[in-house]
Amino acid sequence: MASLYFILFLVAAFDLGFTYILEGESKTLKWPPEYHLKGDETNIGTGIIKPFEIWYSKELNRSRVDYYEGTVRHYVYGETEDNYGQEFVVYPVTNEEYTNENVCEERDFSGPATDFLGSVSDFEFEGQETYNDKLVDVWKYLTSEEDKKKVEKTLYAYKDAEGFDIPVLKEIKVSNLWIGTVKGHIVSRFYDFSKPTDAALNYTLDKDCNETEVSSDLMEKLHLSPDVEDAFASYMSRHDRNYEDDQELRKEIFRNNWRRVIEHNKKNLGYTLTLNKFSDWTEEELANLRATRPSGEHVGSVPFPHTEEEVEELVKELPDYYDMRIEGFISSVKNQGSCGSCWAFSTTAAVEGALARSNGGRDLDLAEQSMVDCAWGFNNMGCRGGQVKGSFKYILKHGLPTQMEYGLYLDEMGKCHRENMTSLYKIKGFAAVPPLSVNAMKVALYKYGPVTVSINANKAVMGYNSGIFFDPTCNDSGPNHGVAVVGYGKRDGADYWIAKNSWGEDWGQDGYILFSATDNNCHLLENAYYPIV
After folding, report:
1. Within a 13 Å sphere around the CA of 274, how many CA atoms are in the beta-carbon half?
2. For a tag site, which of 9, 134, 159, 436 has the least CB within 10 Å?
3. Coil, helix or strand at residue 139
4. In this structure, are 327 and 468 located in the same domain?
5. Element containing residue 75 per DSSP (H, E)
6. Which residues have a catalytic role annotated?
7. 287 and 383 share a domain?
8. Among residues 161, 504, 227, 524, which one has the least CA distance to residue 345?
9. How far is CA 318 from each of CA 208, 322, 379, 451, rounded to the nearest angstrom?
10. At 242, which CATH number?
């Protein structure tokens, strides 16, 4: 997954000390040491338009960025010689108890405060143009690697009364020279330049960062407390713990689990860890628990309708190749952007496909954003990751609106407004495919529609381009990403799965990946569910 600071794309764009000659006069491109700017970023490839507002002060070593008119807010206090940096992120949470309650999460931050205008090197002055009735300087940067990649950058800026350069537009285009395609195209606009106020950069003045009873309760429920002592105290209260002579032992066990959860979830790998009632148990207690009770995890709201014997008979009648894309049941590939919402995209894709099969091929574009905003009460955490099973439980209870009615995907955590929808598409239930069974997966796909699975998206998967993917090291780590399987095939006698991803059509085979069915590659057969409509 990508960083929450999508706007750091600016960092590679400018250089404070570049000098150019205009009409015989030497001038220097120089950004102001403090600024407040509004703007928006348009990703031409994904169609996402992301409005932002930025503040920066070099003297205070602080910065701030808001997305979507302050729905998500990031405050940064830069690292100093005496103190490590801090980041405070405010975003809305909706679960089964709260609706759009804002959480202020504290995170560690390394380095100085974020100067969004960043630094530049190797830009060349191209002259002047009129942009929005203002005379601006035009700067360009071009670099290319033979037969590989070309990067083009264009900057429009003007001089203010103090002699600083103020950006008004920046365009970045990255092309793949080998296949002749554009791999990335971003256009950013800037406007309403002013000086930042100290108050705008002070997170303590943000009412959502005050330690109110509600926000503290939410933080503990979401296991986001930045302090292990506070987290442990909340944990004991919530789980009614009253240790006698082993409190220090329990605290140490909890501390190790807490650190593991925080460190893992910071990596934004597409799945998250959490703290639960077992987070203070010893290894012996956990072993006893596992030995005496079934996990009960891999079950749906309804049972899989076929026995193992029935599956073996049914599979004999199935074709060797089945692709729901050819049948016209699968919607176009979408792009989750930098938000860790693969759980929402993979489950929504399965529901869209199942509905299309049942209504004669009429595609529906359902709103992943509605789950990012509203499904916090089902083991999901917006852009911080989620669970496939919890997602289907949410859809079973609340349904999904169309994107046209709910609104465009934001690539951020937004405010929940499902109650305002006139039409919600629900499912009758969801079933779990028997684990580790290639034939059961084939039967589920052919008879019932797309199946949502959890996989390990390792480095090789991230870089996948084409062919049938098989990596024996893919099972060394557990599942961390959700995709939707929409068909199967056979090549050279080996079975494979056709998986729809949510990284855009410019990734893999037009947004898809073919997974080998051999040896449960990448855990694909362990945690599979399909919706019933």
Report:
1. 16
2. 134
3. strand
4. yes
5. strand 72-77
6. 342, 481, 501
7. no
8. 504
9. 56, 9, 36, 17
10. 1.10.287.2250
Residues 6 or more apart whose Cβ sits within 8 Å of residue 297: 389
Which tokens in the block code for residue 271?
């799945």
- Of the residues 258, 292, 326, which one is the last residue of a structural domain? 292
For 238-291, the DSSP string reads: HTT---SS-HHHHHHHHHHHHHHHHHHHHT--S------TTTT--HHHHHHHHH
Domain endpoint, select from 142, 167, 199: 199
Question: Based on the domain organization, do 267 and 374 belong to the same domain?
Answer: no
String of DSSP letters for 329-356 = --PPP-B-TTS--HHHHHHHHHHHHHHH
| Residue type at position 469 | F
Distance CA 468, CA 489 (A): 10
Domain assignment of residue 51, yes or no: yes
Query: Can you give the residue range of the structural domain that contains 418?
Result: 308-532
Does residue 177 share a domain with residue 93?
yes
Provide the 10 A C-beta neighbour count for residue 286.
Answer: 12
- 490 is a domain residue: yes
The domain total for the chain is 3
Phi/psi at 345 (5° precision):
-70, -40
Residue 205 inside a domain? The answer is no
CATH of the domain at 384: 3.90.70.10
**Helices 388-398 and 342-358 meet at what angle, rounded to 10?**
50
Q: Is there a single domain that holds both residue 448 and residue 479?
A: yes
Q: Which residue type does 36 have?
A: H
Asked whether residue 239 falls in the same domain as residue 316, the answer is no
Q: Domain check: are 340 and 448 in the same one?
A: yes
Q: Are 288 and 409 contained in the same domain? A: no
Pairwise CA distance, residues 209 & 303, whole Å? 45
> Is 0.85 topped by the overall pTM?
no
Q: Residue ranges of the alpha helices (H) in 375-413?
A: 388-398, 403-406
| Nearest CA among 491, 450, 442 for reference residue 316 | 442
Q: Identify whether 23 is part of a domain.
A: yes
The per-residue pLDDT string of the chain (533 residues; one tens digit each, 9 = 90 and over) reads 334 333 333 333 333 333 333 443 445 678 899 999 999 999 988 888 999 999 999 999 999 999 999 999 999 999 887 778 889 999 999 988 889 999 998 887 878 999 998 777 678 888 999 998 889 999 998 887 665 678 899 999 999 999 899 999 999 998 877 666 777 899 999 999 999 999 999 998 998 987 533 344 444 444 444 567 777 877 777 657 777 677 788 888 888 878 766 774 565 533 234 665 457 867 555 333 322 222 237 789 999 999 999 999 999 999 999 999 988 899 999 988 878 899 999 999 999 999 999 988 788 899 999 999 999 989 898 988 899 999 999 999 999 999 999 999 999 999 999 999 999 999 999 999 999 999 999 999 999 999 999 998 875 676 676 778 888 888 998 888 899 999 999 987 889 999 999 988 877 788 898 999 999 999 999 999 999 99
* Cβ partners under 8 Å of residue 25, min gap 6: none
* Nearest in space to 170 (alpha carbons), one of 146, 189, 192: 189
Q: What is the CATH number of the domain that holds 180?
A: 2.50.20
